[in-house]
Amino acid sequence: MFTIALAAAGAALGAALAGLGAGLGNRFGLWTYGTGFRILSAAAAVGAMGALASLAAGFWSWRVRAYRALAASLLGVAAGALVLGVPVTEIYQAKSVPPIHDISTDTGHPPQFVALLAAREASPNGAAYGGAALAEAQHRAYPDIRPLDYPARPPVAFERSLAAARKLGWTIAAADARALRIEATATTFFFGFKDDVVVRITPLGSGSRIDVRSASRVGVSDLGANARRIRAFFRDLARQG
């Protein structure tokens, strides 16, 4: 029984390692994200089978009080559930948000890429904004994504925006205090996807209006990542204010 439990757990653990490698391989340029997704899908299938086999072995181990086999089985169930949970979570997220990847607080006149224009144009998603159809889809899904009226003069808002961008781990591509604009790139941890961000600050009465645009370089859907990024940026600004 211990041998069977160990084999099932080994399959699940191997699948978990393959799933981890699927994302990291794309992050470090070993293969494309399409290949990474295929590896992850295969790992999830093997992990599911390993978890089921571990569950069965664990049940019988518990019945006969084979505790070493039971421990191996529990490890296999956990590893299989982990590797299966990643694509399942992504599928759920994809179904809960529209298939868009470019989010802006100003959909009528979205901030434009300048320093990152060449990188955007070289990417599959390009630099152009999607227009009215994209704006409508965004407003339905993310009605809270709007310009931020900030109670500080533009120079102060600029410095606080730059501090927030750095705190969030973005790679700053340009920070123009005169033009009151910041461009940066945010890189996701697992697959290493690159999303580009523009922050535009304009005077508004005694304070400032802050607009943000966050757009993915690849992929049809961002799984809500760009909207979450803008919210996190505004939360940090609120704490500073």
What class would the helix/strand composition place it in? alpha+beta
Order of helices and strands: HHHEHHEHEEEEH
The total beta strand count reads 6
Mean pLDDT: 91
- From the alpha-carbon coordinates, what is the Rg to the nearest angstrom? 23 Å
Structural write-up:
The protein has 241 residues and is an alpha+beta fold. The chain has 2 domains: 2-96; 102-240, Alpha-D-Glucose-1,6-Bisphosphate, Chain A, domain 4, CATH 3.30.530.50. The chain has 7 helices and 6 strands. It has helices at residues 2-27, 33-64, 67-96, 117-122, 132-141, 154-167, 225-240; strands spanning 102-104, 148-150, 171-176, 181-187, 194-204, 207-216. Strands 1, 2, 3, 4, 5 and 6 form a 6-stranded antiparallel sheet that branches. Strand 4 (181-187) and strand 5 form a beta hairpin. Helix 2 (33-64) runs antiparallel to helix 3 and helix 6 (154-167) crosses helix 7 (225-240). It is elongated.
Please give the structural blueprint:
Elements: H1 2-27, H2 33-64, H3 67-96, E1 102-104, H4 117-122, H5 132-141, E2 148-150, H6 154-167, E3 171-176, E4 181-187, E5 194-204, E6 207-216, H7 225-240
Antiparallel strand pairs: 1-6, 2-6, 3-4, 4-5, 5-6
Helix pairs in contact: 1-2, 1-3, 2-3, 6-7
Question: What are the defining features of this structure?
Answer:
single chain, 241 residues, alpha+beta, Alpha-D-Glucose-1,6-Bisphosphate, Chain A, domain 4, 2 domains, 6-stranded antiparallel sheet, 56% helix, elongated
